[in-house]
Structure formats: C-alpha cells, structure tokens
Write a structure and sequence with these properties.
Strand content: under 5%
Shape: globular
Radius of gyration: 18 Å
Mean pLDDT: 76
Distance between the termini: 32 Å
Structural class: mainly alpha
Order of helices and strands: HHHHHHHHHHH
Length: 202
C-alpha cells in the first residue's frame, strides 16, 4: 500500500459530499452518537460500489446507459426527498440527544441508501482503486479488497470526526432557533444542489 494511495484517499474523503453533509446534519440534530450511526451507514453504503468495482459490475454502469440512468434517477429522487424532508422539519432539537436503537438503525440505513443510490460511487471505485494496484501483483482482486477496506476505514474515521465537530457545536446552535432554521435551509439546499448535480451527470 503506497503513501500516494493514503494521501489521495484522505483528500478524497475530506471533500464535502452527500455523506459528509448528512453526517454533519445528524451530528447537529441528534448529537455525537447519532452521527456515528450516520458515518457507519454512509461507509457501509459504499460497500456495494466497492464490491461492484472489484468484480467488474461497475463496468455495466459505464457501458449501459439504461442501468446508469435508472440508478441515477433513484439517487436524484432520494436526494430531493432529503432536501424536502430537511426543509419541512421544524421540530425542536432535543438537548438530551437521547436515541433509541431503532432510531440509530434508521439513521444508518438512510446514510447507506444515500450512497447505494449514487452510481458515480461505483464508477469512482472502478477508476480509483486500480491505479494503486501493481501490474505485477500476484492477486489483483485481493489487493483491490485491501485497498477498499482501508479506504472505507478512512471514510468512517473522517466522517466520525465531522460528526464530532458538528455535535460539539450543537449546544451553541440549539440556543439560537434562527441559526437552526438557517442551518436546516442550508442543508436542504445542499441536498438539492447535490441532487441537481447528479441529475446532469452523464
């Protein structure tokens, strides 16, 4: 495993995307424990894309316009739904940050679905991982699996860090209802922008 792979992975994971925005939103809304569930869900949501790239299924999305468009449409619809849901949510943030297990499972499931319904993720793994596998590698598949595991572990760690920062600022935000309103609008707008960006992806 090269230093180049680790550095590139850190840069890629740090870039704000759907998973980061969702984890930040959950961290502000529900607290640190809930943000861990969000980070875990987003990380697990990238597992199908990683496996698809390793076994070559991601190539189908690259060559089949219909397959890509179907998954893209579902992803766009879900992102717009998240934007609408966030914008319509006017409930007060709970200071206790208490969460039942079912609530955490729902948070993780939503995070996973956000990544599963993003066809660009499969194409990313297909283009990204093979660059760091040596042409002389005895078992390329095993090398790809190792890289995917490391990348997902880094994703989870960085997302937990993002969630922790959001949870840390939570008390400050909670005491200012106007700030909460604007933050929700910003998150809703961001989900909408991400959905529109995905919609024009070819």
């Amino acid at each position: 495993m090269s230093v180049e792979f680790l550095l590139t992975s850190v840069v890629v994971v740090l870039l704000p995307g759907t998973g980061v925005i969702y984890t930040l939103a959950i961290g502000l809304e529900r607290g640190f424990r809930a943000s861990i569930a969000a980070a875990l869900g987003c990380t697990l949501g990238s597992l199908p894309a990683a496996l698809a790239s390793i076994v070559g299924l991601a190539a189908l999305l690259h060559t089949s316009a219909l397959a890509f468009q179907v998954i893209k449409a579902l992803g766009v619809a879900y992102l717009f739904y998240m934007a609408w849901k966030t914008l319509r949510d006017d409930t007060a943030i709970d200071l206790s940050a208490s969460g039942e297990r079912s609530g955490y499972l729902r948070i993780a499931a939503t995070g996973a679905l956000l990544n599963v319904l993003n066809p660009k993720l499969s194409l990313f793994f297909l283009a990204f991982l093979p660059q760091f596998v040596s042409a002389t590698a005895a078992n390329a598949a095993a090398a790809l699996v190792g890289l995917a595991i490391v990348f997902m572990a880094m994703t989870f760690a960085v997302f937990v860090l993002y969630g922790g920062c959001a949870a840390y600022a939570r008390d400050y935000v909670i005491r200012r209802p106007r700030v909460v309103t604007w933050i929700r609008r910003c998150f809703a707008g961001t989900f909408g922008v991400l959905g529109a960006k995905l919609a024009v992806t070819t």
